[in-house]
Design brief:
The chain has 489 residues and is of the alpha+beta class. The protein is 57% helix and 12% strand. The strands form two sheets. It has a four-stranded antiparallel sheet with strand order 2-3-5-6. The chain has a two-stranded parallel ribbon with strand order 1-4.
Length: 489
């Protein structure tokens, strides 16, 4: 990377962006271009993978839910974690400005003083009476360290990299927030649907138990069947409190994401049927991923900072030349302060060459080199994890589509069987117990279908998050990427 305000050569290595992995796909085996489909509105459509297509900066709009869009916008306005990340970036920007002023520019100060002093001659080994006099001083001082070898420029480069790191941390907070709000809303919708179906299932199983008790009274069933049905009902009832607990926790988590107190945030009521499953999924090329994921870019910024530290440690081994000057007036009265005889000035320089520090400076440079290597391996691990997350998301999208199709098939089959049982019961060809058992199977399959449907939505969110979320397609963010070091909002 080059920086316009750091001219000339500097000690230490020049940082270069690590090359992206030379691969053409994320998974070992080539993925199908589209997923399987099933004839169910919204969630049943096939999803097509469009490689090398741009990701929308507001990808959550692809779900076509006004409620979801409002939730995300509220979170972006009010979430304290995101605001803290913005302030952390401002701290890094102002620290960079301060260090640029301290390390690259001369320091000029104006010193004004007035003193009234009484001294005794005995203080200086002279026997005399005490003297009282005034001293007035007006002086301009300047100092500048010549950065002959670029050690100071490397120090500024270090702070520049810190600004980049904080900027990418802010983008990571933005991506995490939008993804978590979307995923939490989907989870709440799924839990509400599961609770509704579970309540229906409990009612059905209780009706089955009541009928079997009547049959047992007249010798139609055994005691074992009563106990089995009682156990089944108890097991189904036991499913309800954990679902209700999880729903409450998810609503509480959503309140925090929105930057609101749980007592002030109404419960979310969003049906899964109100969410549209995106039909076309833009997928970045593997070579582009390292320039899009905020966590990878943040790791690269830290690697850059460690590279600059090597230059700083190298510069500490070399001579340092400092220029000093002052110009002013010294007099014993204000009237004579600016007379020619009161004029005083100094021009000088000093050279500092480290000679012996017990090997400390050499050790610090070796430590900086080792630290750079440490962060390089950390960077590699983050890249590997990023590719894994994309691969996982792509495979989940493919396989969960098959799972959803299977669950829809089971639900539709049990629903037809239930309809047939009810029709036969209407005309006297079926007893009511069999109808309830058919309804029990249908509701069980319905709950499984709801879970599979929610998985399709969350898989899509996970893919957008794994690919970086499209922040680079926002003109304001592209501008912030180039101006963050200057503190431009």
């Amino acid at each position: 990377m080059t920086f316009s305000f750091i001219p000339g050569c500097a000690v230490g290595p020049n940082f270069h962006e690590p090359s992206p992995p030379q691969v053409s796909r994320y998974t070992y085996k080539k993925l199908p271009k589209k997923t399987t489909s099933v004839s169910v509105a919204n969630a049943g459509k096939s999803q097509i993978l469009n490689f090398n297509q741009p990701i929308s900066k507001q990808w959550w709009y692809l779900f076509h839910s006004a409620v979801l869009n409002c939730l995300v916008q509220q979170g972006l306005r009010n979430n304290p974690t995101l605001e803290a990340a913005k302030k952390s970036l401002q701290v890094a920007q102002q620290t960079l400005r301060a260090q640029m002023g301290n390390l690259l520019l001369p320091a000029v100060d104006l010193n004004l003083s007035a003193e009234r002093t009484r001294i005794v001659g005995l203080q200086y080994g002279v026997s005399s009476s005490a003297n009282v006099f005034n001293i007035y001083n007006t002086q301009t001082q300047a100092s500048y360290m010549l950065d002959l070898f670029g050690g100071n420029r490397r120090q500024v480069e270090f702070y520049q990299a810190q600004v980049d790191y904080k900027n990418y941390e802010r983008l990571a907070a933005y991506l995490t927030l939008t993804s978590n709000i979307t995923t939490t809303a989907i989870t709440i919708s799924s839990l509400e649907a599961q609770i509704k179906a579970t309540l229906e299932l409990i009612k059905t199983e209780r009706d089955v138990l009541n009928i079997k008790k009547m049959q047992f009274k007249y010798g139609g069933v055994s005691q074992e069947e009563i106990e089995a049905q009682t156990t089944l009902l108890a097991q189904t009832i036991a499913l309800l409190p954990p679902l209700q607990k999880t729903l409450a926790e998810e609503n509480h988590s959503l309140a925090v994401l929105l930057g609101s107190l749980t007592s002030n945030t109404p419960l979310l009521h969003l049906k899964l049927s109100q969410l549209n499953l995106p039909a076309r999924l833009p997928v970045s090329l593997p070579s582009q991923l390292v320039r899009q994921r905020p966590d990878i870019l943040a790791a690269e910024a830290l690697l850059h900072a460690m590279s600059a530290k090597i230059g700083v440690a190298t510069g500490n081994l070399l001579p340092k030349i400092t220029l000093n000057a002052y110009y002013g007036w010294v007099a014993n009265s204000p009237a004579s302060l600016f007379m020619a005889a009161s004029n005083a000035w100094l021009i000088g320089s000093s050279l500092l060459q480290p000679l012996f520090h017990g090997g400390a400076l050499i050790a610090e440079r070796r430590a900086a080199i080792a630290e750079f290597q440490e962060y390089y391996f950390k960077y590699q691990n983050i890249v590997l994890q990023a590719f894994k997350e994309v691969a996982d998301a792509l495979r989940s999208i493919q396989l969960d589509a098959y799972a959803f199709k299977a669950e829809v098939g089971a639900e539709q089959s049990s629903k037809k069987f239930l309809a047939t049982s009810m029709k036969r019961f209407k005309f006297g060809g079926e007893n009511y117990l069999n109808v309830l058992i058919a309804q029990q199977k249908y509701l069980t399959n319905k709950i499984n279908r709801i879970k599979a449907q929610a998985s399709r939505y969350t898989d899509t969110v996970t893919l957008f998050q794994a690919l970086g979320g499209g922040w680079w397609n926002n003109p304001a963010e592209r501008h912030s990427k180039t101006t963050a070091r200057r503190g431009v909002k």
